[in-house]
Amino acid sequence: MDRAGCPNRSVRSRGPQADLKAAAIGAVVLLREWLSRRASVPARPVNDRARPNRLVRLVETYLPNRAGVALTALMLLGSTGLGIVKGGHVDDFLAGLSDTRNALANSAGFRITEVAISGRKHVSQDEVLAIGGVNGRSSLLFLDAASVRDKLKANPWIADATILKLYPGQLRIDIVERTAFALWQQDGRLSVISEDGAVLEPYVSRRFVTLPLVVGKGADSRARDFIALLDRYPQVRAVTKAAILVGERRWNLRLNDGLDIRLPENNVGNALALLSKLDKEDRLFSRDIVAVDMRLPDRLTVQLSEDAAKAREELFKDKKPKKKPGDSA
Q1: Top-level class of domain 182-316
Q2: I need a surface site. Which of 28, 190, 298, 316 has the fewest CB within 10 A?
Q3: CATH code given to domain 93-177
């Protein structure tokens, strides 16, 4: 109690709830006073000077509403796009969008009604259309010729392609195919390759059995030049079964009867010319030998077969002079 006998009252607030309640009551009182003052103000006559104020009121009234609608639409679009991306449906969405616009173009008269494909031998017409992404829903209006060409060139058999759109509904495709040039064996796998070394397909068809065979790492890219050199010497080319690239530096030849010919790293043409001459004059390839080593520039070494080596050894034994009685050891 204070000196006057009255109980003491704390000057501190009784709590946050009491403070909020007091603030709310004060806000209501101020709002009532503001409304009463607005009601007592007489209405202004409409004139030219009041038009700017009306414009301001319109902006203040409608702009927030329009902005709210725009923001809502943007939020919906953004959430939809986020759902498509996170759900992994981007490709499906783009495909659906493409189908929709193609359907509209087709209904307008730009449907592909005729397709002419020229230059194909190994790739069928259905394969060409499938690789290029042309189907029954495609329209000529929205067909991207450059994209179709790039897709076709990505196929190993197709070296080049030309796409021509003839409105309203004709499509012409001219392709240039690669030619099967050789068989390439690498790490036990056999593939069909073109002259530039491109792998066309795995070797599964017997129609490629007559192609020359090259073996080893790097032989695919060097086969064209070596086989062109080998073709200059038909005596050797006719009996060659495979050309083997050794260490990506030099070639060996494996003949049809299993004879190995080890060619030098340099002056290969001279070595092939010598081989051709020896076979014509001495029937080298018909002899009982297993290998011919031509790696050294100043000599040619011949390795006999096991049977030929034994026969030669026996022959030399018989030619040795026999010892007579009384000769010293």
Answers
A1: alpha beta
A2: 298
A3: 3.10.20.310
